Amino acid sequence: MSDTVLKLENLSKSFGSNRVLSGITLEVSRGTVLGLMGENGAGKSTMMKCLFGIYSRDEGSIYLDGKLVSFSGPKEALEHGVAMVHQELNQCIDRTVADNMFLGRYPMKYGMIDEGKMKLECNKLFRSLDMNVNPSTIMRTMSVSQRQMVEIAKAVSYNAKVIVLDEPTSSLSEREVKKLFGIIRTLRGKGVSFVFISHKMDEIFQICDDVAVLRDGHMIFQKHVKDTNMKEIVAAMVGRSLDQRFPPLTNNPGDVILEVNNLSTKYEPFLKDISFSVRKGEIFGIYGLVGAGRSELLESIFGLRKLSSGEITYAGKRVAFKSSAEAMDYNFALVTEERRKNGIFAVETLTFNTTIANLSKYKRFGYLDSKKMEDAANKEIALMHTKCMNASDKIGSLSGGNQQKVVLGKWMERNPDVFLLDEPTRGIDVLAKYQIYELINKMATAGKTILVVSSEMPEILGITNRIAVLSNHRLAGIVETKKTNQEELLTLCAKCL
């Protein structure tokens, strides 16, 4: 059996009276992939922050290659061969790929940054990882998935012994996931170890050698993947068996409420002649490969992108939203794909983030009523089962999944009639996903109209009534969910390529 490269022993951490980690012991063997699973708020992020010296642990020890270590921060961890790729990317998006790859360790020549060497080293690394990336590309112009792959390449460039990947596939297409798994297997064969944090159960069984499950700050078990199964892992995560992955649909779609006719956009990436209609109370899925135009379609409907032609009709009236404010006046809501970039105010409280889209509701005698705002936040915290200390917590201190619950709660406060959801369960655990599926179904049953983008094939097939498939910024087809399958969706994805 492989020797242990990283060991966390009896690790504990508290914030005030809140004990977040309790006696955690975890071992990672050399040249293996350890899957780390647990609900949002189970303690995964806190454990990793203790490893990287972002948090000081209260008790316990960390061993790397059998030696006791205590990193003062991520930089020291990197220097010792431990790297992490975060789910929420922290990059200098107005700088080039090469700048981001060498940030903090620029090669120098004659007292100046050696840009030629940077590009040479980047190209050499990208070729070894079978990645087609231009080092001179400005990060802002790249898709989320492309930026994520660059971040993974950066971790590899440090010759790390252990690489922690936090939800690495959350923004990747199936083709990119296969490429990532190929990179992991290649590096695993060279003795590199991985901690693979994911909520996608099928990925754990595809790529991991071992799996560890956290619940409420306790290590429930660590096992070889071949010695467990999906049902046991889910039960360990949530404390009970979860027999159904998706709740049964109870909505009954009515008459057409939203029509999109020959929609094309003015700026890149261009959407071309897209037409479809959605019924009141329907859950309408939008599927396609990453870059097919799914997010751009929702943004166009919500008034964030200018149309070059076409029209949108809502409730029998032609609308042309010039801004998100106009869309909100018509009771539309949009949950964006990148919550940290344009979904939350990370340094503000849960109360602020819950009420910011609906401030007029909380006024009293012309002034904002802080008690009303706090009550609204507490109501949504209870409704969404958000794990936090209280409504005055900074949202940036919560796990990604709990941040997403606050984002959904913000829009629920407006009681929207049309809900545009872009990857609403990205980075969310299995139980929280089920709760969001139930919420979507409940809203549709109450007559709300839902448009949902998802990259997860089982999800789009499990929660929708119909699915529109985009291919290369065009509509490739619309299918009834009950009458379609994965093969048909993938065939439509390639139709316009």
Could you name the CATH class of the largest domain? Alpha Beta
In which range does the helix fraction lie?
Answer: 25-40%
Strands across the major sheet, in which order?
A: 6-9-10-3-11-12
**What is CATH's topology name of the largest domain?**
Rossmann fold
Overall geometry: globular
Please state the average pLDDT score: 89
| CATH architecture classification name of the largest domain | 3-Layer(aba) Sandwich
Give unreliable regions as ranges: none
Task: Compute the CA-based radius of gyration.
Answer: 23 Å
Total DSSP helices = 17
User: Which structural category do the helix and sheet elements fall into?
Assistant: alpha/beta
Could you name the CATH homologous superfamily of the largest domain? P-loop containing nucleotide triphosphate hydrolases
Biggest sheet, open or closed, and with what strands and sense? 6 strands, mixed
Integer tally of domains:
2
Strand composition percent: 25-35%
